[in-house]
Amino acid sequence: MKTEDHTVQIGTEGCTGLITLNRPEAINALTHPMVLRIGEALTAWEHDPAVRQVLLRGAGERGLCAGGDIRAIHADAKAGTTGSLAFWRDEYRLNARIARYPKPYIALMDGIVMGGGVGLSAHGSVRIVTERSRVAMPETGIGFVPDVGGTYLLSRAPGELGTHLALTGTAVGPGDAVLCGLADHYLPSDWLEEFTRELTFAPVDEVLGKFDGATAPAVPLAAEREWIDHCYAADTVEEIHQRLLATGLPAAREASQTLHAKSPTSLKVTLAALRRARALDSLERVLEQEYRVSSAALSSAPDLVEGIRAQVIDKDRRPRWNPAALVQVRAASVERFFAPLGEGSELTFS
User: In what residue span(s) does the Enoyl-CoA hydratase/isomerase domain sit (predicted)?
Assistant: First the structure.
């Protein structure tokens, strides 16, 4: 059985349900119809005894998924409309469903995996990276805040590695993705075709046992843990900056320079979101918090429109953040992102 549409291909081969994101010209950027289509497939397969496991992959050579379709989000925010809220509501529910799916959910995190692509893959039960993997939550660079359960995942990374990745938006390779809890297994990219073929005949645990000879990838962040853990344990973004500069280390100084280019509001809200996510007891509670934050960013935070304009629309790479400096971002402005949305407007899970 195999059915197709333009943006997502859904089918089964042997005992495996196959989901192929099919927008290679946009590095498979995720749209609302794609989210709904994936959800429909998971529903169809959940109680189908012929489907033992699910495999997610991306069409093309560039990556699994570069994130959500931020051009559409930009248009929505600029127009003052709320179509993105419906997208996020269904996307975040899909993220939670993937995490709780009763059958193995295997994600091939080959190439670029960012933002919404992380949400589709890193909540799965079997997450495979390759030498081409570049995994990131780069939202602070567009005036947004990590979502799709990203603050859940990064708040639970070892030490302060997740804080570093969330604030700077740094993309990590396969070894660091595994270290940070964003992936489980490493396979060379030229093994993926055979790996996928084997999955049509056997369960994933059995197949993984046949592909255990790959050389372990490098883990650069492991050598940086001391200064990362010290600097990012600070209570404020301002103090993080100060600690980074005080180390005298080139890598820490580079991180400080990276932070200077990000939205000051997004940095402060992201740090608060991570700290709060650590105290929440489930992915669902964190997604509910992220929905509040995303809603505030869409409706009343100018940096989202400006960040997407500078990075994606005009591509001048010169965002004019408002406020322009960390010291100008007041605590009350940060708190507003976490305010209740009101009855009937919250994201909830049954």
Answer: 17-338
